Amino acid sequence: MATKLLLTDLASSVSHVPSNYIRPIFDRPNLSDVVQISDASIPLIDLQGLHGPRHSHIIEQIAQACQHHGFFQVKNHGMPEQVINNMLRIAREFYRLPESERLKNYSDDPSKTTRLSTSFNVKTEKVANWRDFLRLHCFPLEDYVHQWPTNPPSFREEVSEYSTETRGLVLRLLELISESLGMQRDYIDKALGKHGQHMALNYYPPCPQPELTYGLPGHTDPNLITVLLQDDVPGLQVLSNGKWIAVNPIPNTFIVNIGDQMQVLSNDRYKSVLHRAVVNCNQERISIPTSPRQLTLSPKLVHQSSKSSGESHINMYSGESHMTTSTNEEEERHCLYAMQLASASVLPRVDGMNVAEYIGKDERFCELFKDSSRYYNPMFMKKILETYRGFEGLKSLVDVGGGSTPGGKGAVLNMIVSQYPIIKGINFDLASVIEKAPSYPGVHNVAGDMFVSIPKGDAIFVKLNDDHCLKLLQKCYEALPNNGKVIVVDLLIPEAPETSLAIQSTFQLDLFVMNMNPRGKERTEQELLSLAKAAGFSSIRVVCCAYNFSLVEFYKKMRSTTAVYAMQLASASVLPMVLKAAIELGVMEIIAQAGPGALLSPSEIASHLPTSNNPDAPLMLDRILRLLASYSILSCSLVTDHQDGQVHRLYGLAPVSKYFIPNQDGASLASIFNMIQDKVMIDAWYHLKDAVLEGGLPFNRLYGMNPLEYVGKDARLGGVSKDATRDYNSIFMKKILDTYRGFEGLNSMVDVGGGDGSVLNMIISLYPNIKAIHFDLPTIIEKAPSYPGIQKVAGDMFVSIPKGEAIFMKETPLTSSPVPIPVSSACCISMTYIMMHLYQISNFVGFFILGKLNGI
152 preceded by cis ω (within 30°)? Predict the structure, then answer.
């Protein structure tokens, strides 16, 4: 199967948009509604005469543009036209390089400072954007330029020149913005310190169905400002007064947009507005955004407004509503950080009124609240609908207060019903709200009082945001069938403070709630459970998160997932048997040999196996690998075949996979797994019940002998056990030697039951000053290899043990000796293990598994 990591190599070969690029119906660009106006769709500011008499006029223009538009363009900016043309040319040349050359720069690791990719995080994003990008960190140049592509040959030279010129422009713009805020012109530059800079070379190829996808969906930038260079192909659109405005390119200009941090820094005076990139079916497009690193909040500006007017313009929604709707981890961190900063200043207390009453009396603040809330619910609901599957199977859903929530009037319920059209939606709110609510297909508007009664439905969707939530939950309980549930979106706080961005912003928003309503608060999961039980519900479950909000289900009856869990237990033996087959087939080694980050199809894996007599091998492998991926033993990615348009599964290694692949010493846990899952061992479990009822050991009851005797008669099992011990010693002892320092300073040590002596040899190799004694039974010692610095001594540990400053014991025998073991005054370094103990017969060495260190 042919697959492509980059869109550039896929786009030219498809006649329709592959499924993994198609946006949900509610999140597609309505291109017919875009406003096409003049070239001056956003303010165009001429920087000519910046240092002359026009200086104050330019400052005022920038202030107006930042305050009312959030975007502006600049001309006569001082950057040579040749530098701009060279940058656009070298970007095109890069994307026209052969696929193999471009892929040298590919990475799916979002943390890399130089990487070529098609998504922010290909491992987590479910819908890809119609864009490839090359991300470059570019200041200080000497720290990063050596990481940049070497082709085209002039790439590093020309991008370095552009980066240097752009940095100068960014610093000039930050000075102008500082002045426009009434601050010292170098305030932002000083606050940034020795700040970095990064850019992206965005490539948007022609798209056969541009109405189904985005180059980039609606988002804001999380930084201070972005300086954008684009070619002559339109694609950038800015949201203004609820309409998407096309920004037509003007030659030799740069577009400047305000980022989330600048909005916070300016105390909400300057606006970070939503913008997006759309694509077309005829022309490729290049855009190159450049940004400085992020900045912390300016205390001066936060306090300035509160001192002068008694209130702060920053509110809890401003950061949230403007954040990007992307689902990748990097953007989510930006969102959480902006939410944290947005709650850094809280609303003042207005005596005699709660915040709802105050909003009703203050027209200015009411409009501010509406404006900041406009995109609040769509942003979070998109995130929820991407991850939450609890709406599946519902026939009816009641949205309580659905017309009065931010961005409400049934809009949230409409998003749900659009994705799940089988659901009968009921938008339930006060009569005064419902009479103004629009009509949506599949949504029925119902007026009433939630504290009197609630319409019946399979599930009820509600936000617990007031101090009457117990009464509300009781009414929800009455309206639900026995198998119904309440779906709650709320902030959950941990019992103890944590330092993550999500928790920091949650604690700040909790105090924001307290400031508005002394009885209102955010809750811990335990407090939410207590509230649920007080309302009559049996249990709750935290299902998923949207940024720092949690989606919690309240159940009237104990949820049916217990039955699913029981079914999982009933088939529990399948997983180890499937993993055993995958190990024996060498599946993980095949994937590893394909290179770091490799993704292989079942057919590609089967091609490395002798499956010529089984045409169904790829299908069988796919089912095996799918199960392993569901347990995160492997990773799974969906890709579209550019030839047939079909979606296929590709499998890669997950973090746990490496433990089942031979390491640099040739050791892995696969041999230990094979020992535990060997048929000889598995069959003994069938006699556990009889052993409980009648006594004895399951192994002995089945085979009529103990494990010691059995291994002496079964050379195959002896070999399996020897391999397991060898690999376990190598893996486990390396970890011990990396962390344990108790061997330091010892002059002598005795390894009791040392088996083949390999463990003691690992210790002595690291601590050669230790006089080591390898002590075991004569039958073992006579066949054990010799190692430098180790003396072999035969004997019986239950009779006497050689003297030493320390005694090392790797395992606990199955039977204890009635005779005390004399250890003189030596200390004892011991491990306790939970598996069976076997002693060597012939070439078999002692076997032990998965223990814990005492005192380490």
Answer: yes
Query: Which residues, including other chains, have CB under 8 Å from residue 382's CB and lie 6 or more apart?
Result: 27, 325, 415
> Do 375-503+512-563 and 567-661 come out as alike in CATH topology?
no
Spell out the domain ranges in the chain.
Answer: 8-356, 375-503+512-563, 567-661, 683-853
The CATH number assigned to the domain with range 567-661 reads: 1.10.10.10
Residue type, 765: S
Tokens of 799: 């009779």
pLDDT tens digit string along 192-218? Answer: 666 788 999 999 999 999 999 999 998
Q: Measuring CA to CA, how many Å separate 259 from each of 48, 66, 245, 462, 495?
A: 25, 10, 18, 32, 34
Q: What superfamily in CATH does domain 375-503+512-563 come from?
A: Vaccinia Virus protein VP39 (3.40.50.150)
Please check whether residue 414 is in contact with residue 397, taking contact to mean a CB–CB distance below 8 angstroms: no
Q: State the DSSP string of 460-494.
A: EEE---STTHHHHHHHHHHHS-TT-EEEEEEEB--
Is the pLDDT higher at 756 or at 850? 756
What is the CATH superfamily name and number for domain 8-356? B-lactam Antibiotic, Isopenicillin N Synthase; Chain (2.60.120.330)
Of 191, 361, 327, 171, nearest to 264 (Cα)? 191
User: The tokens of 96 are what?
Assistant: 């026209």
Give residues with Cβ within 8 angstroms of 721, minimum separation 6: 675, 711, 838, 844, 845, 847
Please report the pLDDT score of residue 849 as a whole number.
Answer: 28
Amino acid at 19: S
Report how far residue 94's alpha carbon sits from residue 203's, in angstroms, rounded to the nearest whole number.
10
What sign does the dihedral 666-671-673-674 (CA atoms) show? positive
Provide the mean pLDDT of the chain.
Answer: 80
Query: Quick check: helix, strand or coil at residue 621?
Result: helix
Q: What is the pLDDT of residue 218?
A: 87
254: closest CA among 85, 397, 76? 76
What does the chain come to in residues?
856
Ramachandran area for residue 740 (φ above 0: left; ψ -120 to 50: alpha; else beta): beta
Residues contacting residue 515 through CB under 8 Å, at least 6 positions apart = 346, 347, 349
3-state SS track over 566-616: HHHHHCCCHHHHHHHHHHHHCHHHHHHHCCCCCCECHHHHHCCCCCCCCCC
Question: Alpha-carbon distance 695 to 688, whole Å?
Answer: 9
DSSP secondary-structure letter at 397? E
The answer to which of 206-210, 267-271, 300-304 has the lowest mean pLDDT is 300-304
Strand order through the sheet with 459-462: 443-447, 424-429, 396-400, 459-462, 485-491, 549-555, 539-546
Is residue 102 within 8 A of residue 180, CB to CB? The reply is no
pTM of the model: 0.44
CA 525 to chain centre: 22
Annotation: CATH topology of 683-853: Rossmann fold (3.40.50)
* Cβ contact 426:444 at 8 Å: yes
CA atoms lying within 13 Å on the CB side of residue 589: 15
> CA 606 → CA 476, 562, 587, 626, distances in Å?
54, 37, 9, 15
Q: Is 242 left (phi over 0), alpha (psi -120 to 50) or beta?
A: left
Most confident of the ranges 177-181, 353-357, 471-475? 177-181
Provide the angle, in degrees to the nearest 10, between the axes of the packed helices 376-387 and 411-419.
Answer: 30
Could you tell me which residues come within 8 angstroms of residue 371 by beta carbon, excluding any fewer than 6 positions away?
A: none
Looking at this protein, which amino acid is placed at residue 537? F
Contact 250, 44 (CB under 8 A): yes
Instruction: Return the bridge partners of 356, or none.
Output: none
Q: Please state, in angstroms and rounded to a whole number, the distance separating the CA atoms of residues 6 and 108.
A: 11
> How far is Cα of residue 182 from the mean position of the Cα atoms in its chain?
40
Position 376 confidence tier, pLDDT thresholds 50, 70, 90: low
Residue found under tokens 């509503």: 321
Look at residue 104 and give its three-state secondary structure: helix
Nearest residue to 236 via CA among 255, 259, 209: 255
